[in-house]
């Protein structure tokens, strides 16, 4: 019977060494590079469309970056990216609400 590193029920491979902070930061930095295109959003009629496209692009690139840096299964990378995105959205929403209230 052929076994793979992830066949034991673990989502991440045990055969690979642990990822360093710099590896993860570098891949996530590349994943967020499309945010530079948000500058196009200054053109009011297309700002929403540009933000939506860039947001999806960054989310997909983040999933790929997490898979590459942590050598994880796709499902775990998706869960990690979505949870991180939700936390970021909550924090930004709270800060935005505080800024408007003051």
Task: Provide structural commentary.
It contains 3 helices and no strands. The chain has one domain (21-101). The protein has helices at residues 21-31, 47-70, 74-101. It is mostly helical and 102 residues long.
Q: Over all CA atoms, what is the radius of gyration? A: 17 Å
Low-confidence runs of at least 5 consecutive residues = 1-10
The amount of helix comes to: 55-70%
Domains (count)? 1
- In angstroms, what separates the terminal alpha carbons? 64 Å
Shape: globular
Roughly what is the average pLDDT, rounded to an integer? Answer: 84
Question: What structural category arises from helix and sheet content?
Answer: mainly alpha
How many beta-strand segments? 0
Helical segment count: 3
What share of residues are in beta strands?
Answer: under 5%
* Largest sheet: number of strands, sense, barrel closure: none
Order of helices and strands: HHH
What are the main properties of this structure?
102 residues, mainly alpha, 3 helices, 0% strand
Short description:
Helix content is 62%, strand content 0%.
Give me the secondary-structure topology:
Layout lengths: L20 H11 L15 H24 L3 H28 L1
Helix pairs in contact: 1-2, 2-3
């Amino acid at each position: 019977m052929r076994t793979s590193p992830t066949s034991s029920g673990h989502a991440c491979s045990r055969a690979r060494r642990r990822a360093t902070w710099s590896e993860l930061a570098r891949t996530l930095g590349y994943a967020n590079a499309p945010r530079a295109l948000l500058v196009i959003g200054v053109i009011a009629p297309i700002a929403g469309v540009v933000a939506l496209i860039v947001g999806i692009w960054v989310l997909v690139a983040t999933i790929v970056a997490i898979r590459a840096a942590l050598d994880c299964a796709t499902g775990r990378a998706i869960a990690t990216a979505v949870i991180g995105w939700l936390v970021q959205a909550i924090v930004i929403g709270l800060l935005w609400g505080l800024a408007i209230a003051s």
